[in-house]
């Protein structure tokens, strides 16, 4: 599992959860789960992306927990969830189902928000019984369903075989990231964030990403390299809103537009000007407000709560 490394103060410092639990996935993998906010409040499930952890959602948790029951979990190998030998889109779906089963009452509906690989997790689970039973609506944030390496613009070259090859080598690198240095911050900001991102945003993201073990980073990069969930987009049977930054180099807006066009129940597409890939950190208020709106529009408070 990851070293616990995140900022200790400010809006991106993770708040203390009301309770913690372990969800056990279909193959026995154990997942660290946090619950914030009052029991009985409308539930929101937050699913982080590649190389991140529950700490990535700190701003949303802090803003939503007063009036929502916010559930966040660490993907296998990330944060406090132990490394697993099995890393596939099916295990992503298994893990999400396990978390929903462990935290939601029968018939209880939640808004699910997934960032990057977290959005892909929702798509991977599109046909799963527990997702269909528990999802009221979803937010797909800075994500895509296929052709991730070919469409990425991290390497400033024209689209083609050379750019794809270089991108694959960079994203799939086994090299350790090392300590968070000024150079490391500049590299991470270039690759994952918009030019206007403040130093406190870059610092928060760098600490989270650098905490991810290199073996975990590499293993999941191989899964993302061959990702093909285009079929799953058409199977997502709940309202889905899509958000992307216009300067996202990892999952550029072409992905968001394709998702919005293919979703059976598209609830809207928002392109955030100047924002990069780390939308929940770079644009915390707009992302939080999208989640609130989905709760207000599609979710109901559990009877008897």
Describe the structure.
- The chain has 13 helices and eight strands.
- It is of the alpha/beta class.
- Strand 7 (240-245), helix 11 (253-262) and strand 8 form a beta-alpha-beta unit.
- Helix 1 (58-64) packs across helix 13 (284-298), helix 2 (89-103) packs across helix 3 and helix 7 crosses helix 8.
- The termini are far apart.
Q: What is the number of beta strands?
A: 8
End-to-end distance, in Å?
Answer: 35 Å
Ranges where pLDDT stays below 50 over 5 or more residues in a row are none
Mean pLDDT over the residues: 95
Which structural class should the secondary elements be placed in? alpha/beta
Q: How does the major sheet shape up?
A: 8 strands, mixed
- Please give the order of strands in the largest beta sheet: 1-2-4-3-5-6-7-8
Keywords:
39% helix, 305 residues, 16% strand, single chain, alpha/beta, eight-stranded mixed β-sheet
Annotate the secondary structure layout:
Elements: E1 19-24, E2 30-36, E3 43-47, H1 58-64, E4 69-73, H2 89-103, E5 110-115, H3 117-124, H4 129-134, E6 135-141, H5 148-151, H6 161-171, H7 182-192, H8 199-210, H9 214-225, H10 230-233, E7 240-245, H11 253-262, E8 266-272, H12 279-282, H13 284-298
Parallel strand pairs: 3-4, 3-5, 5-6, 6-7, 7-8
Antiparallel strand pairs: 1-2, 2-4
Please provide a brief summary of the model.
The chain is of the alpha/beta class and 305 residues long. Helix content is 39%, strand content 16%.
């Amino acid at each position: 599992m990851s070293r616990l490394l995140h900022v200790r103060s400010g809006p991106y410092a993770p708040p203390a959860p009301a309770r913690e639990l372990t969800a056990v996935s279909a193959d026995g993998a154990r997942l660290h789960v946090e619950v914030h906010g009052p029991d009985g409040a409308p539930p929101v499930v937050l699913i982080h992306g590649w190389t991140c952890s529950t700490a990535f959602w700190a701003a949303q948790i802090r803003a939503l927990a007063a009036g929502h029951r916010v559930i966040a979990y660490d993907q296998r190998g990330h944060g406090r969830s132990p490394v697993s030998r099995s890393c596939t889109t099916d295990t992503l779906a298994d893990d999400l189902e396990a978390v929903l089963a462990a935290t939601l009452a029968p018939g209880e509906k939640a808004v699910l928000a997934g960032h990057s690989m977290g959005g892909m997790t929702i798509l991977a689970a599109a046909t799963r019984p527990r997702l269909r039973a528990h999802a009221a609506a979803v937010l797909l944030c800075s994500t895509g369903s296929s052709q991730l390496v070919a469409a990425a613009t991290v390497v400033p070259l024209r689209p083609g075989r050379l750019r794809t090859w270089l991108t694959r080598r960079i994203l799939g690198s086994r090299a350790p990231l090392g300590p968070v240095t000024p150079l490391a911050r500049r590299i991470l900001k270039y690759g994952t964030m918009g030019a206007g991102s403040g130093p406190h945003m870059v610092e928060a993201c760098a600490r989270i990403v650098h905490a991810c073990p290199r073996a975990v980073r590499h293993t999941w990069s191989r899964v993302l390299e061959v990702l093909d969930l285009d079929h799953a987009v058409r199977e997502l049977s709940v309202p889905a809103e899509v958000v992307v930054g216009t300067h996202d180099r990892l999952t550029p807006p072409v992905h968001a537009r394709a998702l919005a066009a293919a979703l059976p129940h598209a609830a809207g597409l928002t392109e955030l000007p100047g924002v990069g890939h780390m939308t929940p950190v770079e644009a915390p208020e707009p992302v939080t407000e999208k989640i609130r709106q989905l709760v207000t529009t599609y979710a109901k408070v559990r009877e008897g709560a």
